[in-house]
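Here is one chain, start to finish.
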Amino acid sequence: MSLRLHEIAEGRNRILNPFTDDKLELLGEVARLRPGTRQLDLACGKGEMLCRWADRHGVEGVGVDLSEVFLTAARARAAELAVQDRVRFEHGEAAAYLRTCAGRFDVVSCVGATWIGGGLRGTIELMLPKVEPGGILLVGEPYWISEPPPGAAEMLGFRREDFGTLGDTLDRFDAAGVELLEMVLADHDSWDRYVAGQWWTMSDWLAANPGDPDAGALRDMLDRSRRYHLRYGRQHMGWGVFVLRPVA
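Its structure:
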């Protein structure tokens, strides 16, 4: 998916993954955030997690994303919540930022974007050097609830083996040298709110921009999203954010 198509589809969403407001609040609670906690949020999207937690928990930190469209929304959200003195947003590729930024953080998060490191294990390996001793990682990742039919994964452009069951995901955490402490999982309702919200947004955009060069690609993306979610996604695919700690 091109960045522009992603920006269009997410036009009306604040949280750019299948989490409701309540689940985002729950994740902040189970992560045991406190005033002054420093967080680095990789592929931060519109910065809702960082801004909300700065407002609710007194978190401070940095968000990094490739999309100037999303970062403009993130900075506006920080101003809306009056937390712009606690958070800042940087434009760039997350893996490159990790290799060059100074210092460590109490929380390093990558929620729904483990492509930055070529998959779950590679992303965790990138994140670990930036975690303070005693700090945690927050990693958002899909998992298989049940075995998908042949071709289901490929319908959205990935492979069945890119993700595992929850048990497989635990094994991958162990192999990456991190301990699973907590987790908050999406449910059918949070998945529906996320993807169905995209459908309406994309449909409205297509009606308003029928001659746009990307209209055909977006129409195909909308059709595949509907068909995948209703035929396969609700039954076979889960998603969650996992709270991890480096193994000493």
